[in-house]
Amino acid sequence: MIAFVQRCNKLRGVDMTSRNDASAVGASAATAREEDHVLSLACQHAVATITMARPKQFNALSRQLLDALSAQLQAIANDDSIRVVVIAGEGKAFCAGHDLREMLEMEDQREFQSLFAACTRMMMSIQRMPQPVIAKVHGLATAAGCQLVAMCDLAIASSEAKFAVSGVNLGLFCSTPSVPLTRNLSRKQAFEMLVTGEFIDAKEAKDRGLVNQVVDTEHLDAAVTQLCKRIIDKPQVAISAGKQLFYRQLEMGIAAAYQLAGQTMACNMMDAQTREGVSAFVEKRSPTWAVNDNHEA
Description:
Blueprint: H1 2-11, E1 39-44, E2 47-52, H2 63-77, E3 84-89, H3 100-104, H4 109-128, E4 133-137, E5 140-142, H5 144-151, E6 154-158, E7 162-164, H6 175-181, H7 187-196, E8 200-201, H8 202-208, E9 213-215, H9 220-232, H10 236-250, H11 254-269, H12 272-282
Parallel strand pairs: 2-3, 3-4, 4-6, 5-7, 6-9
Antiparallel strand pairs: 1-2, 7-8
């Protein structure tokens, strides 16, 4: 317990734009202005919950928030005491996409390219980190907010959640959101959302493959907690190696994918916990997983 809390406290020293309280992160939070706090972090039972904290702006992804998310995700990726990451939003919305007011202040194309590059870095860090990342979605998830849901490894939505890639309504095709969207939905379903900008409800999002589960709002916390537990109950090496393999093979031809998968399984079989799990199955007993700080509350 003590070791896990100490490591979580270190994570709270990452980002100067994060909230400076008991459930927050922030390397220089003491010097940051209160209005600049854009993130909070809570750690419990090997789960790190990152909450976007711009409720008045519907958690719009300002450059500051993007950089804060990137820094926090990187810190968590390097800490094996964290087994699962949850991304949530404070207030009425999950995330309304890019901060349009901030974008209107930009005049040089290089500024826009820098902004979208920062967004891409943050999104890709989710896929590259060893821990599974769950989007906890309530309210609206639009444009880059919908992109964020699609980039997360898993997603659980409130029955009241709504999703859209609605930039086309403003004359701005959601090009970057289209990348993960087309990797979650069928091509025709994704393209329909992109060219119409229309909203879909949580049930439709599940039917199309954008989210894993839809639950009543009052059960959202419990559903996320239960999914986290189901992941943490599995050996860490299998989850982290499996996540890396999952995304790498998706971009390969089938022969190369099989080759990489075989190499991954061979390495996986050399792990002590894997050997214990297989032995327990053969011997018809429950496995005895190694006990370490990763499983402490």
